[in-house]
UniProtKB/TrEMBL annotation:
<protein>
    <recommendedName>
        <fullName>Dirigent protein</fullName>
    </recommendedName>
</protein>
<keyword id="KW-0732">Signal</keyword>
<dbReference type="Pfam" id="PF03018">
    <property type="entry name" value="Dirigent"/>
</dbReference>
<dbReference type="InterPro" id="IPR004265">
    <property type="entry name" value="Dirigent"/>
</dbReference>
<dbReference type="InterPro" id="IPR044859">
    <property type="entry name" value="Allene_oxi_cyc_Dirigent"/>
</dbReference>
<dbReference type="GO" id="GO:0048046">
    <property type="term" value="C:apoplast"/>
</dbReference>
<dbReference type="GO" id="GO:0009699">
    <property type="term" value="P:phenylpropanoid biosynthetic process"/>
</dbReference>
<comment type="subunit">
    <text>Homodimer.</text>
</comment>
<comment type="similarity">
    <text>Belongs to the plant dirigent protein family.</text>
</comment>
<feature type="signal peptide">
    <location>
        <begin position="1"/>
        <end position="25"/>
    </location>
</feature>
<keyword id="KW-0964">Secreted</keyword>
<keyword id="KW-0052">Apoplast</keyword>
<comment type="function">
    <text>Dirigent proteins impart stereoselectivity on the phenoxy radical-coupling reaction, yielding optically active lignans from two molecules of coniferyl alcohol in the biosynthesis of lignans, flavonolignans, and alkaloids and thus plays a central role in plant secondary metabolism.</text>
</comment>
C-alpha cells in the first residue's frame, strides 16, 4: 500500500466516522441520512409535469428590479420568488402533483434569460415528500431549454440529471406561462 493510498483510506474512514457520529454537546445525533446508499443500484426516473408561472402573485411575485434609470430590452435585474403548483396536465385545475418553490432572476441583457434556483417537491405515491433541486439558465423564449438537476432529497438523495422545459402557453401580455417539464433523474 503506497503512502498516498493509505492517506486516502484514512481520510475516507475519517469522513465516514464524522458522518456517522455528530456530537453537539451532550447530544449524539444519528439518523437515516447517515447510511450511504448501496452502490451500483443507481436508476433513472423520468418525471413529467406542468409548471405554472405568472408574475401577478398567483404563482410568483417580483421582489426586486433594476433601478428606474437602468434601461434594458429585457427586465435585466428582476428577481422573483416562486411557489408554483405542478400539475399532471396543462390545465391549472388538473391534479396537483407537486410544488416548485424558490427564486429566479433575469440574468441576461440580450434575451429573457433566467437563472432559476428552484426545489421541485413531489406529492405522488412513494415520491411524496421527495424533491429535486434545479439550478440553471432558462431562456424562456427558446422552444426547448435544459437545466441541471443538482441534487435531491428523500428518494432523490444524491440525485443528478437534467430537466427539459417547453412552453405550452406563454403570454407576454398577461405574464402567464404554462411550461411542460420532463425531468430525467439518476438516483439510488
Ligand atoms: C403526502 O404526504 C402528506 C404528509 O405526510 C400527506 O398529508 C398527503 O396526504 C400525502 N399526499 C399524497 C398524495 O399521498
Ligand atoms: C394574453 O393575455 C391577455 C391579457 O390577459 C389576453 O387579453 C389575451 O387574450 C391573451 N392571449 C392569448 C393568446 O391567450
Amino acid at each position: 500500500m503506497s503512502a498516498t493510498t493509505f492517506f486516502t483510506t484514512t481520510q475516507f474512514l475519517l469522513f465516514f466516522f464524522s458522518l456517522t457520529t455528530i456530537t453537539l454537546g451532550d447530544a449524539n445525533i444519528q439518523g437515516e441520512v447517515l447510511n450511504p446508499p448501496a452502490q451500483g443500484t443507481e436508476k433513472v426516473s423520468h418525471i413529467h409535469f406542468y409548471f405554472h408561472d405568472s408574475l401577478d402573485g398567483r404563482y410568483s411575485i417580483r421582489i426586486a428590479a433594476a433601478p428606474p434609470f437602468y434601461k434594458s430590452a429585457t427586465p435585466f435585474g428582476l428577481a422573483a420568488v416562486v411557489d408554483s403548483p405542478l400539475t399532471e396536465g396543462p390545465d391549472p385545475g388538473s391534479k396537483l402533483v407537486g410544488r416548485a418553490q424558490g427564486l429566479y432572476v433575469i440574468a441576461s441583457k440580450e434575451e429573457v434569460g433566467l437563472l432559476m434556483d428552484l426545489t421541485y417537491q413531489l406529492y405522488e405515491g412513494k415520491y411524496n415528500g421527495s424533491s429535486i433541486s434545479v439550478l440553471g439558465r432558462n431562456a424562456v423564449r427558446n422552444p426547448l431549454r435544459e437545466m441541471p438537476v443538482v441534487g435531491g432529497t428523500g428518494l432523490f438523495r444524491l440525485a443528478r440529471g437534467y430537466v427539459q422545459a417547453k412552453n405550452y402557453l406563454y403570454n407576454l401580455t398577461s405574464g402567464l406561462a404554462i411550461v411542460e417539464y420532463d425531468a430525467f433523474v439518476m438516483h439510488y
